[in-house]
Amino acid sequence: MTGKLVKTLCAAVATAMATIVAAQATECPRKDALGTSRVLAVDPATSPRVGLKSFPQTLPLEDHEVVLTFDDGPWPATTSRVLKALAQECVHATFFLIGKPASEHPALVRAIAAEGHTVGHHTWTHHNLKYMKPGNATGEIDKGIAAVETALHGAATTTPTTPFFRFPFFEMTPQTLDNLQTRGIAVFGADLWASDWNKMTPQQELKLLTERLTIARKGIILLHDPKAQTAAMLPAFLRYLRDNHYRVVHVVPAAAKTVADKTR
């Protein structure tokens, strides 16, 4: 793909995302819904790496503010349930998608974006990049980005329209970190998680997550939309956030927020 075409595509996506960002300012039709409290623009130039589980800094969240993130999708049987739960509460999240399933379920990728969620990147097949040669690790990252971009926009590019990336297993090397920072791609860690890679009941997962959130009081939360237990737990967790006065913050690329501000 030529540089001119990439710039045109990025501009078009920024405009589309700006429309979504502006739409989020409208009132949720359900008066008792949790809702999305605010939109936070993330600029990779000033926030190249966030998440206290991996890095010294995180997003500038206030007390009782959370960012919901989902990894490893899309997976039709469960991602659709997650989307339904989020829509019911008028909440927006960030999905870090794996390239291979994204290429297999492009309609679901587009549905995620169409509902106003942020679509980030999570490699092609979820390999542990820490134990790969630098060139192979970059190839795994780029193939994943290209697959998600193709699913979203019908054109393969390794320049992501949403420059957000999360490492599988949070395993990284100085080389891969530097590569992403040079390319203007922000790396997302997490501040807390539900450990939903372990088998447990939805009730057990809810208890574990809410106990951790009570201690942390805010942060980037990691969940996995392909996990059936998480899809089943999510409606109750969103009600917990509402009933305990937590506020959901939606992260978007700084470019999209800037365009949205100019159009108001």
Label this structure with key terms.
alpha/beta, TIM Barrel, 264 residues, 3-stranded parallel sheet, 7-stranded parallel sheet, 10 strands
Percentage of residues assigned to helices: 40-55%
* Number of helical segments with 4 or more residues: 9
Instruction: Please identify, by name, the CATH architecture.
Output: Alpha-Beta Barrel
Q: Could you tell me the number of beta strands?
A: 10
Radius of gyration: 17 Å
Under CATH, the topology is which? TIM Barrel
- The coarse silhouette is globular
Strand proportion: 15-25%
Just give the CATH class. Alpha Beta
Order of helices and strands: HEEEHEHHEHEHEEHEHEH
Which stretches of 5+ consecutive residues score pLDDT under 50?
5-9, 11-25
At the fourth CATH level, what is the homologous superfamily? Glycoside hydrolase/deacetylase
Distance between the termini: 33 Å
Mean pLDDT: 91
User: Main beta sheet: strand number and arrangement?
Assistant: 7 strands, parallel
Count of spatially separate domains = 1
Oligomer: single chain
Label the structural class: alpha/beta
